[in-house]
């Protein structure tokens, strides 16, 4: 009797212990699962979305996440960066500008509430955002890109050609051509792209170094290696080649080499017959070389018919915008 009682008691204790262990394990697993579902996959998904350049999805998530904690540094930073990179994907100028404004607002908000964390990456994106806003924000672009460039925490090696190019462009818009030239020369050492090459030609022209400008222009007409397909594709950029021929034509024009200038301008027309600037230039040739004012005015009027706001054509015709 006593032995049976002890057995029953022992089995009861074992059963209760087993039930308690199962209950504890299930409770722990549930807690762990909830935590994992909230934290683990979310973080992984954000990284995957970032790697896949799914910036709009990141924006939607981050905007919702910040409703719970608007001071979350990482989420704010990710949102600001995503606003910027998403804006670069947009063709609509209004929407593009709106997302650039959102990026600037978000990153400046972070600057206002955090003064004890590395800001180099933030300065870098903020400077680029101001650069894409255009000429009237170039001073702010220069300010923050320089802050990024000379920050001790800046990951310089991965973006040095990029930041040099942005600084060169921003200084160019500020008409600080000497500073612009310095950064474009640095950019060209890292990335011999046609866009940087054109910028070097243009800025050298603006600083009065015409021979150097011509040297860079001539690089556009050097035959490419068959293996260099990426550069070959870039050479076919019609918009860029219009700028190259226009600049070359201007140099010839200023040297009174009117026939060579005309040939350059004619090549622009073959690329784009609706480029209003080239009609102004051809009109100038007829005025200066031939003293043929009726023909010159014909070309200036053609320029105005394409772009009524073109100041150079209106000045030559002495026509105000109201008169036109």
TrEMBL record:
Ranges for the TPR repeats: 161-194, 242-275
Segment forming the signal sequence: none
Key word Membrane present: yes
Pfam families, A to Z: TPR_11 (PF13414), TPR_8 (PF13181)
Transmembrane stretches, start-end: 9-29, 73-90
UniProt keyword list: Membrane, TPR repeat, Transmembrane, Transmembrane helix
Keyword S-adenosyl-L-methionine found: no
Entry-linked InterPro entries: TPR-like_helical_dom_sf, TPR_rpt
PANTHER family in alphabetical order: CELL DIVISION CYCLE 16,23,27, CELL DIVISION CYCLE PROTEIN 27 HOMOLOG
Protein name: Tetratricopeptide repeat family protein
